[in-house]
Amino acid sequence: MLVLSLAVLQGVVASSALFFLAALIGTSEYLNILDKGKKATPSKFMTFLSVSVVQVLFFLVSAELAEDIILLAAVPVLFIQVLVELFRDKVDGFSRIALAVFGTIWVGLPFALLPYIGTINGTYTGWTVLGFFLLLWTNDTGAYLSGRSFGKHKLAPKISPGKTIEGFIGGVILALVLAYFMPVITGELTETRWIVIAFIIAVFSNAGDLVESMLKRSCGVKDSGAILPGHGGILDRFDGILLAVPVILAYLLLSN
User: Fold this and answer.
1) Residue 17 and residue 3 in contact, taking contact as beta carbons nearer than 8 Å
2) Per residue, what are the HEC states of the chain?
3) What Å distances lie between residue 252 and 74, 123, 128, 135, 209, CA to CA?
């Protein structure tokens, strides 16, 4: 938490570098999970390349070194990734294409978007990005405490038996309470926007956790990695933000 907070507040370069590293590690974990589950693993080289290109393009825009139009360069890279999987001399070509594109979008894109969202009002501000994580951690805390104290009804028993409806509600409530004070804490965005963002995070962080749980369960894997003692891997720690970030960006752009 401390490293993330310092990097995010330091500036767009430090923030982008940290999330670039997280994206690469997360991509490695994703591919390893597929390997362990004996799935149709896509080309590791092309997957890392496409994730890296997405990271670099968004960094250039976030650091005001290029215009937004350059982001379109990611499109041909994704098409090349599809073509590589299409013509590889292996079976399960369609599965490999789907898993390759999914890996780039699910792991690579959200980490690239985080510094970019920090520039949503023009100049980069780390407090906006850090605010997302404060709400995420608060939601997780509320869900854990509520689930442990009152949890009786399973949210998705076949995917993640530990999650309860009571825990979900508790997470939402605690995140919304913090959102009310976020304009004072961060000095960024309005109270209404933070409340909407808190709700988005509460809903989609749970969805993101369930997506990763489903992936690990289908591949017979307990943790995505062991790089973070006590937390597992990068995907285990950041799965809650992966689906939420694109939705937050869409909301911020539409509400501008």
Assistant:
1) no
2) CHHHHHHHHHCHHHHHHHHHHHHHHHHHHHHHHHHHCCCCCCCHHHHHHHHHHHHHHHHHHHCCCCCHHHHHHHHHHHHHHHHHHHHCCCCCHHHHHHHHHHHHHHHHHHHHHHHHHCCCCCCCCHHHHHHHHHHHHHHHHHHHHHHHHHCCCEEECCCEEEEEHHHHHHHHHHHHHHHHHHHHHHCCCCHHHHHHHHHHHHHHHHHHHHHHHHHHHHHCCCCCCCCECCCECHHHHHHHHHCHHHHHHHHHHHCC
3) 22, 15, 11, 16, 23
Cα–Cα distance for residue pair 159/216, rounded to 1 Å: 10
Q: What's the distance, Cα to Cα, between the start and end of the chain in Å? A: 30
**Closest by alpha carbon to 19, among 138, 96, 117, 87?**
117
pTM higher than the cut 0.85:
yes
User: Looking at the predicted structure, is the pLDDT value of residue 192 above 80?
Assistant: yes
Q: Determine the Cα–Cα distance for residues 71 and 119; give it in Å rounded to an integer.
A: 15
- Look at the chain and count its residues: 256
Quick: pLDDT tens for 141-185: 998 888 888 878 888 877 877 888 888 999 999 999 999 999 998
For 232: left if phi > 0, alpha if psi spans -120 to 50, otherwise beta; the answer is left
- What are the CB-based long-range contacts (under 8 Å, 24+) for 229-234? 233/25, 233/26, 233/29, 234/22, 234/25, 234/26, 234/29
Quick check: 159 and 217 in contact, CB under 8 A?
yes
